[in-house]
Amino acid sequence: MTANAGLLASDVPLAAAYDLALVDLDGVAYKGHLPIEHASASLAAARSGGMRLLFVTNNASREPEDVAGQLTGLDIPTDPDEVMTAAQACAALLTTRLDPGAKVLVVGGKGLVTAVQSAGFTVVESADDEPDAVAQGYAPEVGWAQLAEAAYAVGSGAWHVASNLDLSLPTARGFAPGNGALVGAVVSATGVTPDSAGKPSPTMYRLAVERARAHRPLVIGDRLDTDLGGARAGGYPGLHVLTGVSTARDAVLAVPGERPSFLGADLRALLEPHPAPVLADGWYVSGGAAAQVSGGELRLDGAGIDLVRAACAAAWAAVDAGEALDAAAVPELSA
Question: Which residues cross the membrane (predicted)?
Fold first, then answer.
Protein backbone atom coordinates (compact mmCIF):
# COMPACT_ATOMS: atom_id res chain seq x y z
CA MET A 1 0.00 0.00 0.00
CA THR A 2 1.33 3.47 -0.89
CA ALA A 3 0.18 6.85 0.41
CA ASN A 4 -1.50 9.23 -2.01
CA ALA A 5 0.63 12.32 -2.64
CA GLY A 6 -2.30 14.68 -3.23
CA LEU A 7 -3.57 14.86 0.35
CA LEU A 8 -1.30 15.26 3.34
CA ALA A 9 -1.47 13.03 6.40
CA SER A 10 -1.51 14.03 10.05
CA ASP A 11 -1.39 11.42 12.79
CA VAL A 12 -2.45 14.02 15.36
CA PRO A 13 -5.28 16.56 15.25
CA LEU A 14 -4.51 19.49 12.96
CA ALA A 15 -4.82 21.87 15.92
CA ALA A 16 -1.85 20.09 17.47
CA ALA A 17 0.16 19.75 14.27
CA TYR A 18 0.01 23.46 13.33
CA ASP A 19 0.65 26.51 15.49
CA LEU A 20 -1.46 29.07 13.58
CA ALA A 21 -4.77 28.81 11.75
CA LEU A 22 -5.35 31.39 9.00
CA VAL A 23 -9.14 31.27 9.04
CA ASP A 24 -11.39 32.60 6.29
CA LEU A 25 -14.59 34.27 7.46
CA ASP A 26 -17.73 33.86 5.36
CA GLY A 27 -18.39 30.20 4.75
CA VAL A 28 -15.96 29.07 7.46
CA ALA A 29 -16.45 31.03 10.70
CA TYR A 30 -19.94 32.26 9.82
CA LYS A 31 -22.39 32.46 6.94
CA GLY A 32 -23.61 36.00 6.31
CA HIS A 33 -24.73 37.12 9.75
CA LEU A 34 -25.47 33.61 10.97
CA PRO A 35 -23.24 31.20 12.88
CA ILE A 36 -22.02 27.97 11.29
CA GLU A 37 -22.65 24.86 13.34
CA HIS A 38 -19.57 23.63 15.24
CA ALA A 39 -17.48 26.69 14.26
CA SER A 40 -17.40 28.42 17.65
CA ALA A 41 -16.83 25.27 19.70
CA SER A 42 -14.18 23.91 17.34
CA LEU A 43 -12.19 27.15 17.23
CA ALA A 44 -12.40 27.45 21.01
CA ALA A 45 -11.10 23.90 21.42
CA ALA A 46 -8.26 24.58 18.98
CA ARG A 47 -7.32 27.70 20.92
CA SER A 48 -7.42 25.91 24.24
CA GLY A 49 -4.97 23.38 22.82
CA GLY A 50 -2.48 26.11 21.95
CA MET A 51 -3.32 26.89 18.33
CA ARG A 52 -3.46 30.61 17.55
CA LEU A 53 -6.10 32.03 15.22
CA LEU A 54 -5.81 34.84 12.71
CA PHE A 55 -8.86 35.62 10.59
CA VAL A 56 -7.94 36.46 6.99
CA THR A 57 -10.58 37.97 4.73
CA ASN A 58 -10.77 39.25 1.17
CA ASN A 59 -13.28 41.83 2.42
CA ALA A 60 -11.69 45.28 2.20
CA SER A 61 -14.67 47.41 3.15
CA ARG A 62 -14.72 46.72 6.90
CA GLU A 63 -12.40 47.76 9.70
CA PRO A 64 -10.67 44.96 11.69
CA GLU A 65 -12.57 46.21 14.75
CA ASP A 66 -15.89 45.60 12.97
CA VAL A 67 -14.88 42.10 11.95
CA ALA A 68 -13.66 41.28 15.46
CA GLY A 69 -16.92 42.58 16.88
CA GLN A 70 -18.99 40.37 14.61
CA LEU A 71 -16.95 37.30 15.46
CA THR A 72 -17.16 38.03 19.17
CA GLY A 73 -20.93 38.42 18.83
CA LEU A 74 -21.06 34.94 17.32
CA ASP A 75 -19.26 33.48 20.36
CA ILE A 76 -15.83 33.51 18.69
CA PRO A 77 -13.97 36.03 20.92
CA THR A 78 -11.57 37.96 18.69
CA ASP A 79 -9.27 40.97 19.08
CA PRO A 80 -8.83 43.39 16.15
CA ASP A 81 -5.15 42.41 15.85
CA GLU A 82 -6.32 38.86 15.12
CA VAL A 83 -7.90 40.07 11.86
CA MET A 84 -6.07 40.58 8.56
CA THR A 85 -8.15 42.23 5.84
CA ALA A 86 -7.52 42.61 2.12
CA ALA A 87 -7.44 46.35 2.75
CA GLN A 88 -4.39 45.94 5.00
CA ALA A 89 -2.74 43.69 2.42
CA CYS A 90 -3.51 46.20 -0.32
CA ALA A 91 -1.90 49.00 1.66
CA ALA A 92 1.12 46.82 2.37
CA LEU A 93 1.47 46.12 -1.34
CA LEU A 94 1.40 49.84 -2.08
CA THR A 95 4.39 50.35 0.24
CA THR A 96 6.53 48.11 -1.98
CA ARG A 97 6.57 50.74 -4.75
CA LEU A 98 5.36 54.09 -3.39
CA ASP A 99 7.10 56.52 -1.05
CA PRO A 100 5.40 57.73 2.15
CA GLY A 101 3.02 60.57 1.41
CA ALA A 102 2.30 59.42 -2.15
CA LYS A 103 -1.21 60.17 -3.39
CA VAL A 104 -3.60 57.25 -3.65
CA LEU A 105 -7.10 57.37 -5.12
CA VAL A 106 -9.17 55.01 -2.98
CA VAL A 107 -12.21 53.36 -4.51
CA GLY A 108 -13.86 51.41 -1.71
CA GLY A 109 -15.10 51.53 1.86
CA LYS A 110 -13.80 52.95 5.11
CA GLY A 111 -11.68 49.89 5.81
CA LEU A 112 -9.59 50.55 2.72
CA VAL A 113 -9.37 54.29 3.40
CA THR A 114 -8.13 53.65 6.94
CA ALA A 115 -5.58 51.06 5.81
CA VAL A 116 -4.15 53.30 3.09
CA GLN A 117 -3.92 56.28 5.44
CA SER A 118 -2.35 54.16 8.18
CA ALA A 119 0.32 53.06 5.72
CA GLY A 120 1.38 56.70 5.36
CA PHE A 121 -0.25 57.65 2.07
CA THR A 122 -2.38 60.67 1.15
CA VAL A 123 -5.89 59.68 0.12
CA VAL A 124 -7.44 61.63 -2.78
CA GLU A 125 -10.84 61.34 -4.43
CA SER A 126 -10.27 62.51 -8.00
CA ALA A 127 -8.08 61.63 -10.95
CA ASP A 128 -7.51 65.38 -11.25
CA ASP A 129 -5.35 65.11 -8.12
CA GLU A 130 -2.86 63.10 -10.21
CA PRO A 131 -2.68 60.09 -7.86
CA ASP A 132 0.30 57.77 -7.99
CA ALA A 133 -1.91 54.75 -7.51
CA VAL A 134 -5.52 53.59 -7.40
CA ALA A 135 -6.46 51.26 -4.55
CA GLN A 136 -9.74 49.50 -5.34
CA GLY A 137 -11.83 47.43 -2.97
CA TYR A 138 -15.47 46.43 -2.68
CA ALA A 139 -18.01 48.60 -0.89
CA PRO A 140 -21.78 48.70 -1.45
CA GLU A 141 -21.63 52.42 -2.19
CA VAL A 142 -19.12 52.10 -5.05
CA GLY A 143 -20.78 53.27 -8.26
CA TRP A 144 -20.12 54.58 -11.74
CA ALA A 145 -18.64 57.89 -10.61
CA GLN A 146 -15.93 56.23 -8.50
CA LEU A 147 -15.19 53.64 -11.19
CA ALA A 148 -14.87 56.41 -13.75
CA GLU A 149 -12.37 58.30 -11.59
CA ALA A 150 -10.37 55.10 -11.21
CA ALA A 151 -10.39 54.57 -14.97
CA TYR A 152 -9.27 58.15 -15.63
CA ALA A 153 -6.41 57.80 -13.15
CA VAL A 154 -5.25 54.40 -14.38
CA GLY A 155 -5.52 55.59 -17.95
CA SER A 156 -3.18 58.45 -17.05
CA GLY A 157 -0.58 56.09 -15.62
CA ALA A 158 -1.58 55.48 -12.00
CA TRP A 159 -0.68 52.06 -10.60
CA HIS A 160 -3.87 49.98 -10.21
CA VAL A 161 -3.94 47.78 -7.11
CA ALA A 162 -7.01 45.70 -6.25
CA SER A 163 -7.72 44.44 -2.75
CA ASN A 164 -8.98 41.20 -4.34
CA LEU A 165 -10.39 39.87 -7.58
CA ASP A 166 -13.37 37.86 -6.28
CA LEU A 167 -15.99 37.94 -9.03
CA SER A 168 -18.83 37.06 -6.67
CA LEU A 169 -19.82 38.01 -3.14
CA PRO A 170 -22.04 35.77 -0.96
CA THR A 171 -25.02 37.55 0.57
CA ALA A 172 -28.14 36.41 2.43
CA ARG A 173 -30.04 36.52 -0.89
CA GLY A 174 -27.42 34.71 -2.97
CA PHE A 175 -24.31 35.73 -4.87
CA ALA A 176 -23.81 39.36 -5.87
CA PRO A 177 -21.07 40.99 -7.96
CA GLY A 178 -17.80 41.09 -6.01
CA ASN A 179 -14.80 43.38 -6.22
CA GLY A 180 -13.42 41.47 -9.18
CA ALA A 181 -16.51 42.37 -11.19
CA LEU A 182 -16.08 46.06 -10.31
CA VAL A 183 -12.37 45.90 -11.09
CA GLY A 184 -13.35 44.38 -14.41
CA ALA A 185 -15.19 47.57 -15.31
CA VAL A 186 -11.99 49.59 -14.86
CA VAL A 187 -9.97 47.00 -16.76
CA SER A 188 -12.49 47.11 -19.62
CA ALA A 189 -12.12 50.90 -19.81
CA THR A 190 -8.31 50.99 -19.57
CA GLY A 191 -6.95 47.67 -20.79
CA VAL A 192 -4.62 47.67 -17.77
CA THR A 193 -4.34 44.52 -15.65
CA PRO A 194 -4.15 45.40 -11.93
CA ASP A 195 -1.97 43.88 -9.25
CA SER A 196 -3.93 42.17 -6.49
CA ALA A 197 -3.22 41.86 -2.78
CA GLY A 198 -6.05 39.51 -1.90
CA LYS A 199 -6.45 35.79 -2.20
CA PRO A 200 -5.46 33.84 -4.29
CA SER A 201 -2.35 35.99 -4.08
CA PRO A 202 -0.45 34.68 -1.03
CA THR A 203 0.36 38.24 0.13
CA MET A 204 -2.17 38.27 2.98
CA TYR A 205 -1.11 34.86 4.22
CA ARG A 206 2.54 35.89 4.22
CA LEU A 207 1.77 39.10 6.10
CA ALA A 208 -0.37 37.21 8.61
CA VAL A 209 2.33 34.60 9.22
CA GLU A 210 4.92 37.33 9.72
CA ARG A 211 2.63 39.19 12.13
CA ALA A 212 2.05 36.06 14.22
CA ARG A 213 5.66 34.86 13.90
CA ALA A 214 4.26 31.42 13.23
CA HIS A 215 6.34 28.43 12.18
CA ARG A 216 3.63 25.95 11.13
CA PRO A 217 0.64 27.82 9.66
CA LEU A 218 -2.49 26.14 8.30
CA VAL A 219 -4.87 27.90 5.91
CA ILE A 220 -8.59 27.16 6.40
CA GLY A 221 -11.08 28.11 3.71
CA ASP A 222 -14.24 27.22 1.84
CA ARG A 223 -13.30 28.49 -1.65
CA LEU A 224 -10.88 26.56 -3.79
CA ASP A 225 -10.20 29.41 -6.19
CA THR A 226 -9.22 31.94 -3.52
CA ASP A 227 -8.56 30.40 -0.09
CA LEU A 228 -6.96 27.15 -1.20
CA GLY A 229 -5.47 28.62 -4.35
CA GLY A 230 -3.72 31.19 -2.17
CA ALA A 231 -2.49 28.44 0.13
CA ARG A 232 -0.99 26.54 -2.79
CA ALA A 233 0.55 29.71 -4.22
CA GLY A 234 2.21 30.49 -0.90
CA GLY A 235 3.32 26.94 -0.13
CA TYR A 236 1.03 26.61 2.90
CA PRO A 237 -1.04 23.50 3.71
CA GLY A 238 -4.75 24.15 3.37
CA LEU A 239 -7.85 22.68 4.98
CA HIS A 240 -10.98 22.85 2.82
CA VAL A 241 -14.20 22.81 4.89
CA LEU A 242 -17.46 22.06 3.13
CA THR A 243 -19.56 24.74 4.83
CA GLY A 244 -19.34 27.43 2.16
CA VAL A 245 -18.93 27.96 -1.56
CA SER A 246 -16.87 25.10 -2.99
CA THR A 247 -18.47 21.67 -2.76
CA ALA A 248 -17.04 18.20 -2.33
CA ARG A 249 -17.52 17.65 -6.07
CA ASP A 250 -15.56 20.84 -6.74
CA ALA A 251 -12.70 19.43 -4.67
CA VAL A 252 -12.69 16.19 -6.65
CA LEU A 253 -12.42 18.19 -9.88
CA ALA A 254 -9.96 20.78 -8.53
CA VAL A 255 -6.99 21.77 -10.67
CA PRO A 256 -3.59 21.17 -9.04
CA GLY A 257 -3.11 24.81 -8.06
CA GLU A 258 -6.35 24.85 -6.06
CA ARG A 259 -6.26 21.46 -4.35
CA PRO A 260 -6.49 21.35 -0.55
CA SER A 261 -4.07 19.42 1.60
CA PHE A 262 -6.82 18.34 4.00
CA LEU A 263 -10.59 17.94 3.76
CA GLY A 264 -13.23 18.31 6.46
CA ALA A 265 -17.00 18.52 6.64
CA ASP A 266 -16.69 21.48 9.01
CA LEU A 267 -14.30 22.98 11.55
CA ARG A 268 -14.43 19.89 13.72
CA ALA A 269 -11.81 18.66 11.26
CA LEU A 270 -9.31 20.78 13.22
CA LEU A 271 -9.71 18.44 16.17
CA GLU A 272 -9.17 15.20 14.26
CA PRO A 273 -6.21 13.29 12.81
CA HIS A 274 -6.18 13.08 9.00
CA PRO A 275 -4.85 9.78 7.64
CA ALA A 276 -4.16 10.05 3.91
CA PRO A 277 -5.97 7.73 1.51
CA VAL A 278 -3.88 4.75 0.46
CA LEU A 279 -3.80 2.78 -2.77
CA ALA A 280 -4.77 -0.87 -2.45
CA ASP A 281 -5.71 -3.17 -5.33
CA GLY A 282 -6.42 -0.27 -7.65
CA TRP A 283 -8.69 1.57 -5.18
CA TYR A 284 -7.88 4.57 -3.00
CA VAL A 285 -9.09 3.72 0.48
CA SER A 286 -9.96 6.14 3.28
CA GLY A 287 -11.57 4.78 6.40
CA GLY A 288 -14.48 2.62 5.26
CA ALA A 289 -14.73 4.26 1.83
CA ALA A 290 -12.97 3.67 -1.47
CA ALA A 291 -12.76 5.17 -4.96
CA GLN A 292 -11.06 4.50 -8.27
CA VAL A 293 -11.03 5.86 -11.81
CA SER A 294 -11.51 3.22 -14.47
CA GLY A 295 -12.23 3.88 -18.13
CA GLY A 296 -12.64 7.59 -17.38
CA GLU A 297 -15.35 6.88 -14.79
CA LEU A 298 -15.06 7.67 -11.08
CA ARG A 299 -16.28 4.63 -9.13
CA LEU A 300 -17.31 5.12 -5.52
CA ASP A 301 -17.97 2.88 -2.54
CA GLY A 302 -18.94 4.33 0.82
CA ALA A 303 -20.17 7.63 2.19
CA GLY A 304 -19.25 10.72 4.19
CA ILE A 305 -16.02 12.69 4.34
CA ASP A 306 -13.96 9.50 3.92
CA LEU A 307 -15.57 8.99 0.51
CA VAL A 308 -14.77 12.59 -0.43
CA ARG A 309 -11.12 12.04 0.51
CA ALA A 310 -10.93 8.77 -1.39
CA ALA A 311 -12.60 10.33 -4.43
CA CYS A 312 -10.17 13.25 -4.45
CA ALA A 313 -7.22 10.90 -4.17
CA ALA A 314 -8.41 8.72 -7.04
CA ALA A 315 -9.42 11.59 -9.32
CA TRP A 316 -6.26 13.64 -8.75
CA ALA A 317 -3.98 10.65 -9.27
CA ALA A 318 -5.74 9.72 -12.50
CA VAL A 319 -5.69 13.23 -13.94
CA ASP A 320 -2.07 13.78 -12.96
CA ALA A 321 -1.17 10.51 -14.70
CA GLY A 322 -2.77 11.77 -17.91
CA GLU A 323 -5.90 9.61 -17.70
CA ALA A 324 -9.25 10.89 -18.87
CA LEU A 325 -11.90 11.67 -16.25
CA ASP A 326 -15.50 12.24 -17.25
CA ALA A 327 -16.24 15.32 -15.14
CA ALA A 328 -19.90 15.33 -16.15
CA ALA A 329 -20.31 11.91 -14.55
CA VAL A 330 -18.80 12.92 -11.20
CA PRO A 331 -21.75 13.11 -8.78
CA GLU A 332 -22.43 15.54 -5.99
CA LEU A 333 -21.00 14.14 -2.77
CA SER A 334 -22.21 14.65 0.78
CA ALA A 335 -19.84 14.80 3.73
Answer: none
* Listed residue (28, 34, 5) closest to 239, CA to CA: 28
Size of the chain, expressed as the number of residues it contains:
335
Same domain? For 212 and 140 the reply is no
Q: What is the largest CA-CA distance in the chain?
A: 69
Give the long-range contacts of residues 46-52, CB within 8 A, separation 24 or more.
Answer: 46/15, 46/21, 46/270, 46/271, 49/13, 49/15, 49/16, 50/15, 50/16, 50/19, 51/15, 51/16, 51/18, 51/19, 51/20, 51/21, 51/270, 52/19, 52/20, 52/21, 52/212, 52/214
Please check whether residues 189 and 206 belong to one and the same domain: no
4, 318 in Cβ contact below 8 A?
no
Q: Are 247 and 161 in a shared domain? A: no
For the beta carbon of residue 145, count every other beta carbon within 10 angstroms.
Answer: 10
Residue in 213, 237, 270, 275 with CA at minimum distance from that of residue 29: 270
What CATH number is associated with residue 182? 3.40.50.1000
| 272-311: pLDDT as tens digits | 999 999 999 999 999 999 999 999 999 999 999 999 999 9
Asked whether residue 192 falls in the same domain as residue 116, the answer is yes
Which domain does 94 fall in, by range?
A: 87-196
Closest CA to 334 of 301, 313, 295, 305: 305
pLDDT at 171: 75
Whether the predicted model's global pTM rises above the 0.70 cut: yes
Q: Does some domain include residue 139?
A: yes
Q: Residues 222, 331, 253, 33: what is their CA dihedral angle, to the nearest 10 degrees?
A: -10
Q: Give domain status of residue 73, yes or no.
A: no
Q: What sections of 74-127 are H helices per DSSP?
A: 86-94, 110-118
Contact assessment for residue 176 and residue 161, using Cβ atoms and an 8 Å cutoff: no
Asked whether residue 53 is assigned to any structural domain, the reply reads yes
Give the number of other Cβ atoms within 10 Å of residue 16's Cβ: 16
Q: Are 179 and 137 in contact (CB under 8 A)?
A: yes
**In Å, how far from its chain's centre is CA 64?**
17
Angle between helices 110-118 and 86-94 (to 10 degrees): 40
| Cα–Cα distance for residue pair 132/150, rounded to 1 Å | 11
